[in-house]
C-alpha cells in the first residue's frame, strides 16, 4: 500500500535496528503515524490496545514481540513467559497462537546465544509469507469479481464488514486483496463499506485504504446491508476471518453473522478470505469452540472523532448507567458461507473443501 506515494508495510524493522515499527491504527484515519516497539511489553500493549489489529498482523506482531523478548533475555524461562504473556493479549484470532508456537518451537532447541538472531529472522519470514499469501488471495478472489463483471453492466458491488485489508495484514489484505487486484486490472468495482460499530474499523480504516488506493466506495451504516441486498445492489460479500474451523465456520467481527443471514435470504454469494494461518484444524464447531473476546464497555458507550474545527473529542452516546455488553466477534456457520478464498484457491466451506486445498492436513485432522 502506498501513502503519499511511499510504499509501507504495516510492520517493519526500525531504521536504527533497535525495534519494530508499526502503523498506529488508533490514530487513523485523521493522522498517519508510526510507532516503534522496543520491547515485548510494548508489543503486547500494541496488540491489546489495537494499535495493531487484524488476525494476520497480530500474528506477525506477536512473532516480533517474542524476538524482542529474546533480545532482552533469551533464557528458557523468559521464552516460556513471553509466549504466555503475548498469547493472553487477545484470545480470538488463531494467528496469534500460531505465530507464537511457530517461533517458540523453532527456538526451543537452540542455545540462548542463538535465539535473538533466529527469532528476528523467523518473524521476518512470517511477515514475508503473509504478504505472499495475501497477494495470492487477491488473485483468486479477483477471478470471482471478474466473473461477475462479465455477466453484468456497471460496476461489481462488493459489501465488506470491518477491515480486512492492508491494515489487518502485513500488506495487501485478505477481503480487500481481491478488490485491489480487480481494480488494478481494470475491472469496475465498487465497495459498500459497513461502518462496523463499535470501533468503526470500516468507516475509519477500510474507507481510508480504499481512498488511498482510488477504489470507488460508499460507507454505509451497519444495518443498511440487508436493505441493499434486498434491492439487488450487492453482487457479493467478502469478509475476513480471525479464526476458521476445519469444517468451514468463520469467526469475524461482530455483525458478520447478520450479513451472512441477509446474503443467504437474498441469494447473494458470501465469501470469507483468509490465509492458511487462520484455519484452526483442531475445531469443528465454531459457535461452541471459538473463544469470543469481550472488550471494554467504553467502546460502545463513547465515540471519539474530529470536530469541525479540527479538534478531537470523545463523547458519550449511551444513556448513563445502562449496562453494556461488547462481544468483539461472532461466528458464521459454514452453511451460510458460499466459499473460502485462500492463498491456494477457493474452497467450499466444508471439511472436504478445505482438505482439498490442504491435503497435508488429512492425517492430522
From TrEMBL:
InterPro entries: IF-2B-related, IF-M1Pi, IF_2B-like_C, Initiation_fac_2B_a/b/d, M1Pi_N, NagB/RpiA_transferase-like. Its EC number is 5.3.1.23. GO terms for biological process: L-methionine salvage from methylthioadenosine. This is Methylthioribose-1-phosphate isomerase. The active site is at 242 (proton donor). Pathway: Amino-acid biosynthesis; L-methionine biosynthesis via salvage pathway; L-methionine from S-methyl-5-thio-alpha-D-ribose 1-phosphate: step 1/6. Catalyzes the interconversion of methylthioribose-1-phosphate (MTR-1-P) into methylthioribulose-1-phosphate (MTRu-1-P). Also catalyzes the interconversion of 5-deoxyribose 1-phosphate and 5-deoxyribulose 1-phosphate. Part of a bifunctional DHAP-shunt salvage pathway for SAM by-products. GO terms for molecular function: S-methyl-5-thioribose-1-phosphate isomerase activity. It comes from Methylobacterium aquaticum. Substrate binds at residues 53-55, 90, 201, 252-253. Pfam families: IF-2B. The record marks 162 as: Transition state stabilizer. Belongs to the EIF-2B alpha/beta/delta subunits family. MtnA subfamily. It comes from the Bacteria.
Amino acid at each position: 500500500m502506498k501513502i503519499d506515494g511511499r510504499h509501507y508495510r504495516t510492520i517493519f524493522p526500525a531504521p536504527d535496528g533497535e525495534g519494530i515499527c508499526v502503523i498506529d491504527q488508533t490514530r487513523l484515519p485523521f493522522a498517519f503515524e508510526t510507532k516503534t516497539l522496543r520491547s515485548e511489553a510494548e508489543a503486547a500493549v500494541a496488540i491489546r490496545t489495537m494499535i495493531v489489529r487484524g488476525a494476520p498482523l497480530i500474528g506477525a506482531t506477536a512473532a516480533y514481540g517474542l524476538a524482542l523478548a529474546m533480545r532482552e533475555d533469551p533464557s528458557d524461562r523468559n521464552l516460556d513467559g513471553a509466549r504466555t504473556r503475548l498469547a493472553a493479549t487477545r484470545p480470538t484470532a488463531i494467528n496469534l497462537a500460531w505465530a507464537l508456537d511457530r517461533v517458540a518451537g523453532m527456538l526451543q532447541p537452540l542455545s540462548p546465544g542463538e535465539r535473538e538472531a533466529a527469532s528476528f529472522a523467523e518473524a521476518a519470514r512470517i511477515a514475508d509469507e503473509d504478504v505472499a499469501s495475501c497477494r495470492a488471495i487477491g488473485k483468486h478472489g479477483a477471478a470471482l469479481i471478474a466473473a461477475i463483471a462479465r455477466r453484468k453492466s456497471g460496476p461489481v458491488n462488493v459489501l465488506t464488514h470491518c477491515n480486512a485489508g492492508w491494515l489487518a495484514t502485513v500488506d495487501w489484505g485478505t477481503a480487500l486483496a481481491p478488490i485491489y487486484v480487480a481494480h488494478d486490472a481494470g475491472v469496475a468495482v465498487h465497495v459498500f463499506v459497513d461502518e462496523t460499530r463499535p470501533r468503526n474499523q470500516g468507516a475509519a480504516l477500510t474507507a481510508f485504504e480504499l481512498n488511498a488506493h482510488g477504489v470507488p466506495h460508499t460507507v454505509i451504516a451497519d444495518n443498511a446491508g440487508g436493505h441493499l441486498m434486498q434491492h439487488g445492489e450487492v453482487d457479493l460479500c467478502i469478509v475476513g476471518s480471525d479464526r476458521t474451523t476445519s469444517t468451514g465456520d468463520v469467526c469475524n467481527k461482530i455483525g458478520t453473522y447478520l450479513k451472512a443471514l441477509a446474503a443467504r435470504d437474498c441469494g447473494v454469494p458470501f465469501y470469507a478470505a483468509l490465509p492458511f494461518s487462520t484455519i484452526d484444524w483442531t475445531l469443528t464447531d465454531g459457535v461452541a469452540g471459538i473463544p469470543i473476546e469481550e472488550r471494554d464497555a467504553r467502546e460502545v458507550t463513547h465515540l471519539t472523532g474530529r470536530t469541525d474545527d479540527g479538534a478531537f473529542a470523545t463523547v458519550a452516546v449511551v444513556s448513563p448507567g445502562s449496562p453494556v455488553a461488547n462481544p468483539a466477534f461472532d461466528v458464521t456457520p459454514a452453511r451460510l458461507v458460499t466459499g473460502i478464498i485462500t492463498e491456494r484457491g477457493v474452497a467450499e466451506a466444508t471439511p472436504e473443501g478445505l482438505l482439498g486445498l490442504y491435503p497435508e492436513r488429512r492425517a492430522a485432522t
